[in-house]
Amino acid sequence: MSTIPVEKKVLSENQRIAASLRSRYEEQQILCQNRISSPGSGKTTLLEQTLSRFRHEERVAVLTGDLQTENDAKRLARYGFPVQQITTGGVCHLDGRMIERALERWSSDAIDLRDIDLLFIENVGNLVCPSSYDLGEEAKIVLLSVTEGEDKPLKYPSIFAKSELVVFTKIDLLPYVPFDLAQARVNARLVHPGVEIVELSCTTGEGMDEWSSWLSHRREAAMLRASAAMV
Amino acid sequence: MHEIGIANAIIEAGQTEAARRPGSKLLRIGVRVGTLSGVDNDALRFAFTALTQGTDLDTVDFEIQTCLRRNRCLDCNLEFESGIYSEPCPGCASQRTKLVGGEELDLAYVEVEEP
Description:
The complex is a heterodimer.
Chain A: E1 2-9, H1 12-27, E2 31-36, H2 43-53, E3 60-66, H3 71-77, E4 83-87, H4 96-108, E5 118-122, E6 139-145, H5 152-155, H6 157-162, E7 165-169, H7 181-191, E8 196-199, H8 208-230
Parallel strand pairs in A: 2-5, 2-6, 3-4, 3-5, 6-7, 7-8
Chain B: H1 3-19, E1 25-34, H2 41-52, E2 61-67, E3 69-73, E4 79-82, E5 97-101, E6 105-113
Parallel strand pairs in B: 1-2
Antiparallel strand pairs in B: 1-6, 3-4, 3-5
């Protein structure tokens, strides 16, 4: 009998694909962000609001994941940017292979990645499984709506620990729900010390400027890194 | 519930490793799962059993080692383990810490019987 040390990631195949996606994004200077939340916390609405604020010459594209239906892609396509629905058929998360295939479909539809600066991936609505799958993104963003409960970060620590930004959505509903915003901030930072937090409402527009400026800073930082890498 | 897919990846990787020693029989697979990996140990074990039952792998043992959250203090650099949530540094009481471990999902080893 002998024990053979292996020491590799269980999801090493996904890691390999994610690494290749990441180097592709870096090479073509695409900022890719992976947005994760439970179903109904406002991922698509925030994307709609974000896209509606962009000028038409902005080079943005969206991949949106769901188990079934093209509904989200239809909603998002109205803003005139390339949008592709990934229907997983029951799988509870997106993985690297699905993203790779979606990018291939784009290139056969003559959508050139070199014409894109910003790629938003809207993951399947689920706070658990998407956290295990790297999609080559520059940052994961987790959304939590105030109708859910301020203990979500404590219940689903993995995704809050891995996200660069926590967005509390639907804050216009705060007067009507027992959500304790201060406690929610504490909980998020108990899981992820120092994590950045944006609080917003897509209905009233409150907080949208903070979200936009977070995104702009992220894009600037990525550009600085890219130009430093070229020197 | 993505543990079925993960258990399947573990079984395939275990078989691949065993196949490097021709004629050997896979006895045990050991994995390391961090408390922040997003994978539930019971669900993973259930999935492993469900996938191997009634196959030629149903005698294979499955060992899960749990890895705790590890934090590094950004003020004094001390590394320390904690529960699932961050805790103040036990050395200098600073709250400024960075997560440095606890997200593992690794195939650690396989044990085989050689011919």
